[in-house]
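A protein record in our archive is deliberately plain, so that people and models can read it alike. The record that follows is passed on verbatim for readers who wish to inspect the format.
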Amino acid sequence: MITFIPTPIGNPQDITIRAMKLFEKAEIFLCEDTRQTKRLLRLLEERFDMTYPDALFYSFNEHNGQARLDEFGETFKDKEVIYVSDAGMPVISDPGQLLVAYCQEQNLAYDVLPGASAVTTAYAASGFEEGKFLFYAFLPHKGKERSAALAEAMSNGYNTVLYESPHRLEKLLEEILVIDEDRELFLAKEISKKYQNYYRGTARSLNETFKTLTIRGEWVVVISAQKSTEKSLSFTEVLSLDLPPKPKAKLLAQLSDKSVKEWYNELIK
C-alpha cells in the first residue's frame, strides 16, 4: 500500500493524527528530500509523542524517480510505503505524479490523505468571489516562455493562482504592471508560518507597497480574472442572427471547422 501524505506548509501543528499514525507504522519513506522528512519526524516525536518509525528512507524526485521505480518498485506491493513532499499536498506541483501513475499502471493500492495546500489556502484567503480558478504553479524563469505563460495567466478568463520565489516576486509585479496596472492581486507570504502576511490591491498599488518591504519567504500570488465589457456571441446566437448569408458565413466559419464557402452554400440552400 502506498499512501501519499500532506505535510505542514508551515506550522507543524497542522499535521493530522491520521498522518502520524501512518508514519509510525511505515516501512519505506519516499521523500522529495529525506533530510527534510527526517527533521519533520523528529519534531513530531519530540512535540507530539509520535514514535519515530523504523523505516527505510529513499529520495524520490524528478531526477531519480523513474530509476527508483525500476530499482525496487516491485517491492511496494508488500510494504507500507509513504510518499511525502517537502511541504504541503503531494503530487500538486510535485514529482509524486510519477508515483501515482505507476500505481495506476501496476494496479497497486494507493491512497491520498487530505491536508495542507498553499494553493487552496491562499485562494480561500484572497476573498475573490468566483469559485473557479486555475493553478499555474511556477512560471518559467525567463525569456519568451515566461512572457507567454504570464500573458496566458492574465488573459485566460479565470482567477489564477501561481507560486513565486522571493527573488523573482518584484520582477513578477513589474511584469504584471506593464500588462495591466489595474489588475487586482492577492499575495500570501509564508502561509501558516511566523511571518505570514496577506496583501491585496491593484498591481500599481502593490508595486508601490513592495518598494518599502524586504521580500523574503515563500509566496503565493492570486491574479484576478480579466474584466471584460465585451459580449461574446455563441455559435447558436450567430446562427440565429438576421444577417445576409455572406457575413453570417464568415462569423460561423470562425466558430467552427467549416470554411466560409461551406457555410455560405449551406445558408443559401
